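In this section we walk through a basic example: taking a raw amino acid sequence and producing a predicted 3D structure, encoded as discrete structure tokens. The instruction is simple. Fold the sequence below.
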Amino acid sequence: MVEKQQTTTTRPYERPTTAIITDAGFASRFLPWTKTNPKAMAPMGNKPIMQLVVEECATAGIDNIIIVTTTEGKPIYEDYFGNAVTTVKKQLKAQGKLNRYAEVEQVLDLPKICVITQDPALPYGNGSPIVSAKDYIARNEAFIVCYSDDIVLGSSDVATLLKSFDQHPDASAIIMTQEVPRTEVNKYGIVSLQSTDEVYGSNLLDNIIEKPSISEAPSTLASYGRYLLTPRVFDYLRPSATGKDGELWTVDAITQMAKDDMASPSARSTVYVERTKGQWRTTGDPKNYFMAQLEYVLENEDYAGAVREFVANH
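The resulting token sequence is shown next.
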């Protein structure tokens, strides 16, 4: 049996120290809440979704966070992550409840957070917030991208991405996936893997097929909003490179990178596919948001037992 060994490859990009977290959409399915609030400020227990995503990055060792949001959302995020609410602290101290301020201190102790707005000149699409943050990314360093629609329970996808990057020095991109029921493959972008390789295994991206029919799906691996990208992606995330519905899609750029790799003399993708060690949940619509919040509360809050009892009796 041939032992799998990583070939010696010069690393073109440094390990990521920066993450881009996106929340620049209109979130019209959450109106009227999103009339005045960024969707990722909706709570999971007593923390907003955005804080959970920032914490996922921070615990993995990311030093710099860039939140890309709307013009209306920018002051809200800046206030949340930067306001020490000293009046609240004084009031809690006077009431003998200063221990409650510890939750605020945890927010203030998070890594450096820079909040920017999406460039209005760019087309609509989930790739545009990434392009908006291009000037904040070092040319010689890979970076993390997280969609705030997606939360991961029980593990850190960012940590998995960084570990994979350490193992694959030639990576142009690494994407996270999760197995979904075959009956649901028509709801997601489904990953097609390149043929198994003696050295690299079966974790090389061939293609991402958006919402295939159940019979045509190449796998049950769904791609979602956790990526490790390199500055190479900006060659593909161009305003003119719009796809379905005239939008700028991140997965289109990643897929084209893989195709160009396979057309090169090496004939091998440098886009790697990793499977989550946790549980991915989307919060992109009210139903799934509620289900994700319920699961989060049941796993993390001290009143989980009371919630289970309430649900059981209704």
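Looking at the output, two observations stand out. The longest helix spans residues 286-300. The longest strand covers residues 221-229. In the next section we compare this with other chains.
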